[in-house]
Every structure is written in structure tokens, then in C-alpha cells.
Amino acid sequence: MSERISTSMLYSQSIASLQAKQARLAHLQQQLATGQKLLTAKDDPVAAGAAVGLDRALAELERFGANADTVLNRLGLQENALEQAGKVLARVSELTVQANSAGASAADRKTIAAEIASLRDALLDLANGSDGSGRYLFGGTADDRAPFAAAAGGVVYNGDQTQRRVEIGPQMFVADALPGSEVFLRVRTGDGRIDAAAEAGNAGTGVLARSQLADASAWDGGRYRVVFEADAAYRVEDAAGQTVASGEYVAGETIAFAGLQLVVQGEPAEGDAFSIGPAGTRDVFATLDGLIAALESQPTSDAERAAQQNALQTALRDIGTAQGHFIDARASGGAQLALIDTTDALRDAQTLTLESTLSGMRDLDMVEAYSRFTLEKTALEAAQLSFMQMQQLSLFKLIR
Fold it and tell me: Which of 241, 259, 307, 380 pairs with 119 at a CA distance of 20 to 30 A?
């Protein structure tokens, strides 16, 4: 069987060849114009699919970066607020020492009380600080309203106890700002481990000068009372009222029992008592309120002056512990800030790796592409010239 090649077939084949060469040349021109070798998925389906996956990974890293920036801002503002809160308490401590000095008059204490009241209000403002976007720092997850509000008898907390954990890298989380209940409310009293105080109703002039945990291994964690009796004697009772120690009281000398130590000065009356045991918690605003009330009192007897001095000493110890509590909170926030820095560096390294891989898939080798463009252009021009010459071939030309 023989095949016949017609003029129309040669013409069609030549046109198809020219169009294919023109399409390849146009594709190369578009690649050179964009600098991309993957213009559509059909250019390399496998590479295009992998590139989409890398795009998603880069977008996720960008989202993690935005999360990190938000938490970084909030933790930085928390650090500033806690630093200012520490300065407020340092000033309160300084004023309390002044008020507790022998030379301070009732008028001096009243003036100091007014300044401490102003400092308390400043501390409340710090506790209600926001992050600049309308969200409150110390409200936990209920950060759409001010977490603290003044109320009869003190301050109430309107936030919750939840501390957010925010993902700032693949399976890497950082804690957001602390809830205000942990920062301003649950503050240990005394020295943070034990707390001692004169009991209400003491009629003598005994003042608690010092208390401490001297031997942790000997302390059973219980609460004790040192009760003063007639003839300068004292006894130590446990929580059940059982006497566990006794002795003769000498002002300024240490009373030691069960790993604990107390130093009392002055002259306690018969029946006066001092308690000592594990430290509890109290909100810092209540501590300041108690201090202000003690400073505003007007003692008229030696017993009342001793009670005022005991209240000032207690407040001074509690404020010192609160200062340490704020430092611990700042350290917690600082650890999160350090984690953000570390994660930022890791995320930047991952982003660079992904972008390099993506560049290898998508970016055009300009030298190689330009060489192919030149070859395709030359081939197209040759094909066009050949087609023009083929069009001139005709039997009639030969006959003529």
C-alpha cells in the first residue's frame, strides 16, 4: 500500500511545527520575564505539588512569627508593669520604715498613710494595664474587661485563672502573661515559708522583732502559739493546745522550739500570745490596706502603740515578700522572652531553608534559559524561512 503526501499535508505539518516553536519561544519569554521556571503546574507536576507544600509551611511559620510578636509585646508590657510595681512596693517599704521609727509623730504617720494610699491606687492601675489593643494583661483569658475593681473592703478580681499557651513554632509553645490572681492576689505572707504575728487583744507591750525557720528538718509544718504567763514565763502550744515547750521570757532573747525561732521585745502581759506557722497568702492590696489602717490609727496607750508597731512590722515583712514575689513573676516572664528569642532564631533558620528549597524548585537559571531562548529563536527563524521557500514550490513554475 502506498501513501500519498499532499501539498496541503506538508502545509499543515509546517504550520503545526511553527506554532509549536512559537509556543515554546513564548513560554521561554514568559519564564525570562518572571524569573520563574514553574509558570503552571504542568511545567513540572511533582515540583509544583512540593512547592505548594513548602508555601504552606512558610505561611505557617509566618503565622507563628505573628503569634510570637503578639506575645512578645504582652510579655514586655508585663515586665514593665511588674518593674513599676516593684518600685511602688520599694517606696512603700521605705515609708513604712520611716513610720516605724521612734521619731515619727502621729501627723507624720498620717501623711505617710496618704502617700501609701496614692501608691496603692497606682499599683491598682498597673494591675489593670492593657496591651494597647484593648486586651488586659492580667485578666487571664477573660481579658476583655479590667481584671481588678475596687470594692467594699478591698479589691475584687474579675479575670480567670487561665494562662494562655501560644504556639510560636512547630510544636513549640510559650506562656502568655500571668493571670492577675497569681501576681497580685496569691502572695505569700511572712518570709514566704513561715509567718508569725501578735494575736489580737494582746494587752502588753510585747513586739514581735523576728521570726524564722531555723531547722526545716525539725519542723513538722504545724502552727504553734507562744503564750505568756505570770512571772515572766511562757509556754508553747501546738494546734491541739498541748504544751510542747516552756521557759523563762527575757526580752530580746530567742525562743526556740520545733525548728522555729521567735524574738519578742517589750513586756507581754499575762495571757498575751504570738502565733507562728506556715505562711498563708494574702493579696497585696489587702496588705497595703492593713498598713494604711495601722498608720491612720491613733494609739493612746502603750498596748495600742505596741499593736500599731506589730502591725507595721507585719506589713513590712509581707511587703518584702511581695517584692520577692514580683521578682519571681518577672523571672517567669523573662524565661518566656528568652524562649521566644530562641524560637525566633530556629524559625528564621527553618524559613531560610524552605525558601532556599523553594527557590531551587521555582527560580529560573537565567543563563541556561537565555541559551535555550536563543536556540529556539534561531530554530523558529529557520523554520519560517524553510516554510516560505516551500510555499514557492509549484509544478506550474517548473512548466513555465
Answer: 307
- The string of pLDDT tens digits covering residues 78-112 is 999 999 999 999 999 999 999 998 888 999 999 99
The pLDDT, as a whole number, for residue 310 is 95
CA distance linking residue 231 with residue 251, whole number of Å: 13
Distances in Å between the alpha carbon of 378 and those of 37, 226, 288, 373? 21, 107, 90, 9
Q: Is 25 helix (H, G, I), strand (E, B) or coil?
A: helix
CA 156 to CA 179: how far, in whole Å? 14
Residue 221 neighbours by CB under 8 Å, 6+ apart: 278
Residue 328 amino acid letter: D
Whether residue 329 contacts residue 82, with contact meaning beta carbons closer than 8 Å, is answered with yes
Cell, residue 63: 503565622
Question: Residue 228 pairs with which residues in a beta bridge?
Answer: 234
pLDDT band at 132; cut points 50, 70, 90: confident
Distance CA 175, CA 340 (A): 10
Q: For 352-372, what is each residue's pLDDT tens digit? A: 888 777 766 655 555 565 666
Q: Are 235 and 219 in contact (CB under 8 A)?
A: no
Q: What is the mean pLDDT of residues 213-220?
A: 94
Domain boundaries, the chain: 193-278
How many CB atoms are closer than 10 A to CB 85? 24
Assigned C-alpha cell, 29: 519569554
Taken as a whole, the chain contains a residue count of: 400
